[in-house]
UniProtKB/TrEMBL annotation:
Regions annotated as coiled coil: none
Descriptive protein name: Trigger factor
Coarse class of the protein's main subcellular location: cytoplasm
Family listed: Belongs to the FKBP-type PPIase family. Tig subfamily.
Keywords, sorted A to Z: Chaperone, Isomerase, Rotamase
Catalytic reaction annotation: [protein]-peptidylproline (omega=180) = [protein]-peptidylproline (omega=0)
GO BP terms, alphabetized: 'de novo' cotranslational protein folding; protein transport; protein unfolding
Source species taxonomy: Bacteria, Pseudomonadati, Bacteroidota, Flavobacteriia, Flavobacteriales
Subcellular location: Cytoplasm
Record-linked Pfam families: Trigger_C, Trigger_N
Molecular function GO labels: peptidyl-prolyl cis-trans isomerase activity; protein folding chaperone; ribosome binding
Residues in Trigger factor ribosome-binding bacterial domain copies: 1-143
Domain Trigger factor C-terminal: 267-426
SUPFAM superfamilies: Triger factor/SurA peptide-binding domain-like (SSF109998), Trigger factor ribosome-binding domain (SSF102735)
Length: 440
């Protein structure tokens, strides 16, 4: 057996495997011998079928199968031994005049090679947001808590302070979403007035354009996705099912103890401090994820490399369960190219900066996650045996291990980016941060 490689260019190569008869004939003979022992052919006793008949009936099929097994094994080992970083899978080169009776069988395979490039984190210039809970947000949260723990009272007719339960519908747009919405949540007084004095069972027609202060509220109340919500300008019908009024809970010690435990918070000022602390912890995680995403977006925009596009398009034709046409494969490649580039850049960051995970790290990270979750439910010092049992169950689930590993690697990337990337820190309110997130 002989394996050689011809590098067509930096992104394409041909691997040639030559098999002499001694490389595969023994395997073929063993399989055919077993066929002879077990073959049931009319007119012959079991095991007494002539080999010539076995060869005639099964010879070619067995030869194809055994040669293919050897090719897969040898090609796979070659790629590993040569440390070849390929994209897609090797493609066999068709040879209509292939001679299976030749003394040496010669097979060619096309390879699409991953591009060589480096990433420069120190050259990335992005903004890192620090999200703060401003006074307006804190006042909103206090009012939300008062309503959440307040008393719900049913009303006969809609008033300015009413909360409605009902269904938004638009048959043509496929909208049929039950939701809860406060009258004051509608952006304009004109729309608010349409609901006043209406009763259960009545309907109100409104336009989605400018219906709420934030168009993203349409996602929540209409059940449409992010791409569809922007620029959406249709009429929707709201059918009233319930009309309620919330009598706000008093801001007293009883409420504070219910929220945070006895004596932890004793005033409205302390309540706001607690809300601010908890909210900004949550905002920090969102800001960190945006920072990681923005770094990758910058790397994708500024790290230039070519791909073996022609090879990958042809590979896509046969990669799935159903064969694609050349046109379908080209369209699929166009859709997936950016994702492939992201994977390559992400992989290069990991390899270039030696970001790796091992079992002990993943297990330790899982222990921390479990303890943090238990602490949220009041178990600040959980039993070690209980934690070990939970961790063992989690680590036996491959999907969970994959999810936790991705989370841990994301934390490592964040630490790396914080160290290497020159980022301008910008302090913003959560409302402004949402605008930054969605480019509005």
């Amino acid at each position: 057996m002989n394996i050689t490689r011809n590098n067509v260019d930096a992104l394409n190569a041909i691997v040639t495997i030559e098999l002499a008869k001694e490389d595969y004939q023994g395997n073929v003979d063993n399989v055919l011998s077993n066929y002879k022992k077990n073959a049931s052919v009319p007119g012959f006793r079991k095991g007494a079928v002539p080999m010539s008949l076995i060869l005639k009936q099964y010879g070619k099929a067995v030869l194809f199968e055994e040669v293919n097994k050897i090719l897969q094994e040898k090609l796979g080992n070659y790629l590993v031994d040569e440390k070849l970083d390929i994209l897609g899978n090797p493609l066999p080169v068709d040879n209509e005049n292939f001679d299976w009776d030749a003394d040496v069988l010669k097979f060619d395979f096309e390879l699409g090679l991953a591009p060589e490039f480096t990433v420069d984190l120190e050259g990335v210039n992005v903004t890192k947001f620090k999200v703060v809970a401003d006074d307006a947000m804190l006042d909103e949260q206090v009012e939300f808590i008062q309503k959440q723990y307040g008393k719900l009272v049913s009303k006969e007719a809609v008033e300015e302070t009413s909360e409605l339960v009902g269904t938004f519908t638009n048959e043509e747009a496929g909208i049929n979403k039950e939701t809860k919405v406060a009258v004051e949540a509608f952006r304009t007084k004109t729309n608010q007035k349409k609901f006043l004095n209406k009763k259960v069972g009545e309907q109100v027609t409104v336009s989605t354009k400018g219906l709420f202060e934030d168009d993203h509220k349409l996602m929540e109340h209409l059940g449409v996705d992010h791409d569809a919500v922007h620029g959406l300008e249709i009429d929707v019908v709201f059918t009233i099912q319930e009309i309620n009024e919330t009598e706000k809970a008093e801001l007293n010690q009883e409420l504070f103890d219910k929220l945070f435990g006895e004596g932890v918070v004793t005033s409205v000022e302390q309540l706001k401090e607690k809300i601010k602390e908890d909210a900004e912890k949550q905002f920090a995680g969102q800001a960190d994820q945006k920072f990681v995403n923005d770094v990758y977006e910058s790397l994708l925009a500024n790290t230039k490399f070519d791909l073996p596009a022609e090879f990958l398009t042809r590979w896509l034709e046969t990669a799935g369960e159903t064969r694609m046409t050349a046109e379908e494969a080209a369209a699929e490649y166009a859709k997936s190219e950016q994702g492939l580039r992201f994977q390559l850049v992400e992989g290069k960051v990991m390899s270039q900066y030696e970001l790796q995970l091992n079992f002990d790290e993943v297990k330790a990270f899982t222990v921390k996650l479990i303890k943090d979750q238990m602490a949220q439910f009041g178990q600040a010092e959980p039993d070690d045996k209980m934690v070990e049992d939970i961790v063992a169950r989690v680590m036996s689930n491959q999907e969970e291990v994959k999810r936790i590993s991705e989370q841990l690697m994301n934390d490592k990337m964040l630490a790396l980016f914080n160290e290497k990337v020159k980022a301008e820190v910008k302090e913003v309110s959560y409302k402004d941060f949402v605008k930054e997130m969605y480019g509005e």
